[in-house]
Design a protein that fits this description.
Blueprint lengths: L1 E13 L2 E3 L5 E5 H7 L6 E6 L5 E9 L6 E4 L11 E11 L9 E5 L5 E4 L7
Parallel strand pairs: 1-8, 2-6, 3-5
Antiparallel strand pairs: 1-7, 3-6, 4-5, 4-7, 8-9
Length: 124
């Protein structure tokens, strides 16, 4: 049996833009993706800290070093510029998971710069 476990999280990513005309997805700075160990086109769960909205989408790569966190498509209606988001990626692991499982957690500041890395992301 397998279980879905949190493997990576961007904490307090600030919305820099929202584009309802785009087909869908969330655009994330590729430097941030590398730091948190997420990949383009990976499915993510996104939670808006300001209003509680939750939605699933996929990542598209944004310009490196830009700090871009852009919510696209219908989900753009769920966020406002400057809202804090939690972007989470999950992985399937054998049950029971290893005892010291730790997701990669990257905390961002108000400008989407890395404040801290909470773990080194131990994966099965």
């Amino acid at each position: 049996m397998q279980v879905s476990m949190l493997r990576a999280k961007l904490h307090h990513a600030r919305v820099t833009d929202a584009n309802i005309e785009y087909v869908g997805s969330i655009t994330i700075d590729t430097d941030l993706l590398a730091q948190v160990k997420m990949i383009p086109y990976e499915q993510v769960l996104v939670v808006d800290v300001e209003n509680g909205a939750r939605f699933e989408t996929y990542i598209i790569p944004g310009e490196a070093g830009s700090g871009v966190i852009q919510v696209n498509g219908a989900a753009a209606h769920l966020v406002n510029l400057g809202d804090r988001l939690i972007v989470m990626a999950f992985g399937l692991v054998e049950f029971p998971p290893i005892a010291d499982w730790q997701p990669q957690v990257v905390v961002l500041d108000a400008h989407n710069a890395v404040l801290s890395v909470e773990s080194e992301g131990r994966y099965a």
